[in-house]
Amino acid sequence: MKILLFDTTNAFLTPGGKTTHALKLQQEISKLGVDIQFSRWWDKSQEDADIIHFLVADTKVAQLAKMHGIKTFFSMIFDFESNKSEKQKKIQRLKNHLIDYLPSSISSVAYWHALKYMDKIQFMHQFDKINAFQYFPQILKEENTVIIPHAYDPMDMNISNHLNIAEMHYPTKYLISCANISERKQTVKLAYLAKKAQVPIVFIGNCSKTDPYFKRFEQEIDNKFVFYPGYVSKEWKDCIEAHAAGYVLLSRGESGCIAVYEAAAYQIPLLLSNLPWAWGYENPTDIYYCDQQDEAQAIQQLRKFYNLANKMDHTPYTIHTWEDIAKLYVKEYNLLVNNYQNK
Question: Any idea which GO molecular function terms this record carries (predicted)?
């Protein structure tokens, strides 16, 4: 069985979870004896692929795959839509409906037209799936969907024994926020709240130093409550997370968020946005929610979370390794190939 992982954007242009997702899948699925490669547009030797695993909704490529008898699998990220208000969702669904009435030269590029060419569509959690069915009830079918969550890699942990956290000059107790410095992650807002609540937070994440949003974040760094060591090595990331008391992310929308799984593996509590993306984690026990639209309440919630945050003897929800999750993907791949061969 040969699988091709397909996307259209260079990782260095949009660094983040999608890249990690693809790399971890290729790493772990290949260990299970499956030939899984990254799609190379120039490589004709890949024409014997059984399945193209899409990380982006590309209608033309999906259509061509079907024409060539190749099965299609799509990891559907529906984070922004899932986390809109009900009013915003209704407006967006109406806009989508109107787009479908535009000339085909315009409407055909809409991402949802790729869905009808996907043999299996995977969601990271139930809220993305529920909302996708509300948006596209005529296209999606229950039997063609599956929920497979994100995971963490234990090989990225406990690799910093040679490092000394004291060298970073952080407070004895601090929280972490691992995410790209971006508007979607609301990094500036969290930094502002950290100073208002007088709660020390170490921010770890990639950035574009020419981005005006990053410039705004830089102005919040005071090395008293807002710390930013930059994009650090895996070893330093492990060291910083291993010594953290808790994790905070006030993102506007996620589909699982790998950084949350990685933080959970360190057995620390989580403070997340009070939005659907944060409600979909399996068997939560130590996940807290921040009502970020109310500044006074958010400050109080952040301070309260900091006071209770500490290392635990369990994870804040049920998590899985990429090795575990890889087996779920392979199961779905096999179902696609076997069903195709039996027809």
Answer: glycosyltransferase activity
**Beta strand ranges found along 56-179 (DSSP E):** 71-75, 120-123, 145-147, 175-178
Other Cβ atoms within 10 Å of 53 Cβ, number: 26
Q: How many residues does the chain have?
A: 343
Q: pTM for the full model?
A: 0.91
Tell me how many degrees the CA angle 142-148-154 measures, rounded to the nearest 5: 175
- Lookup result for tokens 């890699």: 153
C-alpha 330 chain-centroid distance: 20
Query: 10-37 pLDDT, tens per residue?
Result: 877 777 788 889 999 999 999 999 999 9
Domains in the chain: ranges and CATH: 2-151+321-339 (3.40.50.2000), 154-308 (3.40.50.2000)
Burial class of 323 by CB neighbour count within 10 A (0 to 12, 13 to 18, 19+): middle
Q: For residue 48, how many C-alpha atoms fall within 13 Å in the half-sphere facing its CB? A: 4
CB 49 within 8 A of CB 4: yes
* Residues 127 and 276 sit within 8 Å (Cβ to Cβ): yes
